[in-house]
Design a protein that fits this description.
With about 230 residues, the chain is of the alpha+beta class. It is built from five helices and twelve strands. It starts with a helix and ends in a 10-residue tail after the last helix.
């Protein structure tokens, strides 16, 4: 090989080595840029400046306030306190539940006595502990009396006594009676627990109210409701 041939070969090898070196340098720079993080110089933050709102991101869903549905039906109406009036309480549906023993003046020597195991002898009279007591303020139904309803006659006197006995069931009664046992019957107000006996008899139609008594309204209610002797056979 001549001198010119060697020169060309040397130039070719040098070019190849130069190109390989350039490629190695480029590849090394790429590796360094991937593995080494880029340091950003810190910026001074000014706390005195107001925080600027962040611009909405494109495509993000916009949140809207909840919609009120039928507010006039669900929410209570607005009232003016000046237009509110205090109404009077309604009267009781019936005065029977408020019936108490009559506040009539009683003899000073009479006392409230508990009478055990009473037995009704008529619709408004009973016997207990050697006493015969007639419920005051009412008129009982005679045992031999018959009542008629829709042209049907029935023995209402006996039925009234049976109803009174069934209601008593031998329970003790509180009655205002004289201290000594009287030979004759004595009229006295009585109660069974907290219930007035006269009010129960008249309101259920098993006795009638005396004109001077306190059970007139109870008798009107019993008549209108066709209770006891004012109704059909029982």
């Amino acid at each position: 090989m001549g001198r010119s041939g060697r020169s060309r070969l040397a130039i070719g090898l040098g070019s190849v080595l130069l190109l390989a070196g350039i490629l190695l340098i480029i590849q090394g720079g790429a590796l360094l840029s991937v593995d080494r993080p880029v340091l950003v110089p810190p910026q001074d933050v000014d706390d005195t400046q107001p925080i600027r709102p962040v611009a909405p991101v494109a495509g993000a869903q916009r949140l809207e306030p909840a919609r009120k549905v039928a507010q006039e039906l669900i929410a209570p109406p607005r009232l003016d306190p000046a237009e509110i009036e205090r109404a009077e309480p309604r009267p009781p549906l019936s005065e029977l539940g408020l019936a108490v023993p009559p506040k009539t003046p009683m003899p000073k020597d009479w006392r409230e006595v508990l009478l055990y195991r009473p037995v009704a002898t008529s619709s408004a009279m009973f016997e207990s502990m050697g006493r015969t007591v007639v419920i005051s303020g009412v008129h009982g139904i005679d045992l031999d009396r018959s009542c008629s309803f829709d042209d049907v006659s029935w023995p209402c006197g006996q039925r009234a006594r049976a109803a009174f006995n069934s209601w008593l069931r031998g329970r003790a009664l509180n009655c205002f009676v004289p201290p000594d046992v009287e030979r004759f019957a004595v009229a006295a107000p009585c109660r069974l627990g907290k219930q007035d006996v006269g009010a129960w008899l008249v309101s259920n139609g098993w006795a009638t109210a005396l004109p001077s008594g306190i059970y007139g309204k109870a008798e009107v209610i019993a008549r209108n409701a066709q209770m006891g002797i004012f109704g059909p056979a029982q």
